[in-house]
Design brief:
Layout: H1 22-29, H2 34-45, H3 54-128, H4 133-140, E1 145-155, H5 181-193, E2 198-201, E3 204-206, E4 212-215, E5 218-221, E6 224-226, E7 230-235, H6 238-247, H7 249-261, E8 264-275, E9 284-285, E10 306-307
Antiparallel strand pairs: 1-7, 1-8, 2-3, 2-7, 4-5, 5-6, 9-10
Helix pairs in contact: 3-4, 5-7, 6-7
């Protein structure tokens, strides 16, 4: 029996491995869309997209000329206005300097007039003060004073932060790392009570009408700010004044601040201290009222304040 030869298959070829990804294959084979390809070919045939007609060329040239004119005009205007702006700036600076100089001159004039008024007040007080003129001049701070006395220095605690938020943020006594106005009030009153005849803080003369206040962390004496350390000069019997003050309630108060809160203090008697006159002179006198100017029963008296100028 003859053997038949093997039969070969004549069917369709085997499919591609990526036959299931026809969309992806199409995108990779045709990366450029047909419409875009056609438009690109048309622009290339027309000469690269540049205008070919005379009208189009003239329009492009006119647009370029207009843009150049606008840029040139803007640059010209900026160049013209620059000197004007510079001149106005210089004039403004000159005006500011002139007004500042005028204000400084007026301040100097005010200070000179204030000093002249004070000098005339002192001379009038010495001339018309009578037997008590010298004492009144001393108590009112009308004249400079020098003589034996004490020097008291009061300063904040060593590690106190002067920028705020320090150990004296509140007003309680237990929060006393920084010298406050109430502390200086007690010190000055203690010196007066201990026999001081004249007192000054940091060169600022105090009188019976002086005020010690606070503005934030600053201490004001007659509305003038002082900075630590506070140097207090007092005229009087040096040794006696020093001893009496340290033994007084106000001296013990200052000692407690030093011991408990680190406020630094030192006191020493001086052979001579010099105190300036008060910047402003205010003198008030009291006179008894006469029977005609009294009350209905004619028996009362009252004090009247008079300002001496």
């Amino acid at each position: 029996m003859s053997q038949q030869p093997p039969v070969r298959s004549t069917g369709s070829p085997s499919p591609r491995p990526d036959a299931s990804m026809s969309l992806l294959t199409n995108v990779m084979d045709h990366a450029l869309d047909d419409g875009y390809a056609e438009a690109s070919a048309r622009r290339a045939a027309e000469g690269g997209g540049l205008p070919r007609t005379l009208r189009a060329k003239l329009g492009l040239a006119a647009g370029l000329v207009l843009a150049a004119a606008v840029v040139t005009l803007g640059a010209a205007q900026a160049q013209i206005s620059a000197p004007v702006v510079a001149k106005e700036r210089e004039e403004l600076i000159d005006r500011i300097e002139s007004e500042t100089s005028t204000a400084d001159q007026l301040e100097d004039r005010i200070e000179a007039l204030r000093a002249e008024v004070g000098e005339r007040q002192r001379k009038a007080l010495q001339k018309h003060g009578g037997d008590q003129g010298e004492l009144v001049a001393l108590l009112s701070g009308a004249t400079e004073v020098r003589g034996p006395g004490v020097k008291l220095v009061v300063d904040d605690a060593k590690d106190t932060d002067e920028g705020g938020g320090g150990p004296r943020e509140s007003s309680g006594f237990s929060d006393t790392g920084r010298v406050r106005d109430r502390d200086m009030q007690r010190v000055i009153n203690g010196l007066w009570q201990s026999g001081a005849e004249a007192v000054a803080i940091n060169g600022q003369r105090l009188t019976a009408l002086s005020a010690i206040r606070a503005a934030g962390d600053a201490i004001l004496v007659d509305n003038k700010p002082l900075v630590p350390p506070y140097t207090v000069l007092a005229v009087g019997d040096g040794k006696k004044l020093s001893t009496t003050f340290q033994d007084s309630a106000d001296g013990l108060y200052l000692h407690a601040l030093q011991e408990n809160f680190g406020i630094r203090t030192s006191i020493s008697d001086q052979a001579e201290v010099r105190l300036p006159a008060a910047p402003s002179l205010i003198v008030r006198t009291a006179e008894p009222r006469t029977a005609e100017a009294g009350t209905d029963d004619g028996g009362g008296t009252a004090d009247t304040g008079k300002g001496t100028s």
